[in-house]
């Protein structure tokens, strides 16, 4: 799962940094990281709105150490003060890598040209990265996920979208009347819209084929739930954190006239997921 490098590497050894929000750690972000040298690091500006890779989850998607700076703590700094802070934090800094639309300083009044003027080392500006003429930005990825188009979101991310949650007690109907599921509570992550998805569920570093439902249980109690069913495995008494990796959407959330119709649909969902995994 996540790796932790920030506590292992002294900032004095860092010679290059990539600066940005980096929510999602998507394909375009990875292009910035390719410009880092072997003593590079990622500087993530934490705005409080990151929900693709919230908190320290960015570290999972790079081998470079990730250092977090809270935007509210630095947004008042003038350009010179911001550069001074970076040089104090990373005294051997020789190279800064940013995206084409990078802005910094008070009221975001400094851009990449300002960075080149103020920083006495090398500044590399990475051009906009596109996928089939669509610019790759975290805001577009969020929209695809919110609309349930996780397949397109994954294309822009360069990986499958993942959420991490804590196991919780469900209705108890799954094992008795349908199929056993693991119920989750999820915080901070953006959730795909309601429906049933082909997924992989990771439990204690082992990945399982799964089908995951997100939404209001309109056929039963009407409450919102996140439930994942492990296919062809007997997994019981799971406690703690698990990770769900979204691959594609199977269908929308529907209300069924009776439990028998719901059960038939669940079996169909599982079979459709198996067809995907068998390809």
TrEMBL record:
<dbReference type="GO" id="GO:0016301">
    <property type="term" value="F:kinase activity"/>
</dbReference>
<keyword id="KW-0548">Nucleotidyltransferase</keyword>
<comment type="pathway">
    <text>Cofactor biosynthesis; FAD biosynthesis; FAD from FMN: step 1/1.</text>
</comment>
<keyword id="KW-0808">Transferase</keyword>
<dbReference type="Pfam" id="PF06574">
    <property type="entry name" value="FAD_syn"/>
</dbReference>
<keyword id="KW-0418">Kinase</keyword>
<dbReference type="InterPro" id="IPR015865">
    <property type="entry name" value="Riboflavin_kinase_bac/euk"/>
</dbReference>
<dbReference type="GO" id="GO:0016779">
    <property type="term" value="F:nucleotidyltransferase activity"/>
</dbReference>
<keyword id="KW-0288">FMN</keyword>
<dbReference type="InterPro" id="IPR002606">
    <property type="entry name" value="Riboflavin_kinase_bac"/>
</dbReference>
<dbReference type="InterPro" id="IPR014729">
    <property type="entry name" value="Rossmann-like_a/b/a_fold"/>
</dbReference>
<comment type="function">
    <text>Catalyzes the phosphorylation of riboflavin to FMN followed by the adenylation of FMN to FAD.</text>
</comment>
<keyword id="KW-0511">Multifunctional enzyme</keyword>
<keyword id="KW-0547">Nucleotide-binding</keyword>
<keyword id="KW-0274">FAD</keyword>
<protein>
    <recommendedName>
        <fullName>Riboflavin biosynthesis protein</fullName>
        <ecNumber>2.7.1.26</ecNumber>
        <ecNumber>2.7.7.2</ecNumber>
    </recommendedName>
</protein>
<comment type="similarity">
    <text>Belongs to the ribF family.</text>
</comment>
<dbReference type="InterPro" id="IPR023468">
    <property type="entry name" value="Riboflavin_kinase"/>
</dbReference>
<dbReference type="Pfam" id="PF01687">
    <property type="entry name" value="Flavokinase"/>
</dbReference>
<dbReference type="InterPro" id="IPR015864">
    <property type="entry name" value="FAD_synthase"/>
</dbReference>
<dbReference type="InterPro" id="IPR023465">
    <property type="entry name" value="Riboflavin_kinase_dom_sf"/>
</dbReference>
<keyword id="KW-0067">ATP-binding</keyword>
<comment type="pathway">
    <text>Cofactor biosynthesis; FMN biosynthesis; FMN from riboflavin (ATP route): step 1/1.</text>
</comment>
<keyword id="KW-0285">Flavoprotein</keyword>
<feature type="domain" description="Riboflavin kinase">
    <location>
        <begin position="156"/>
        <end position="278"/>
    </location>
</feature>
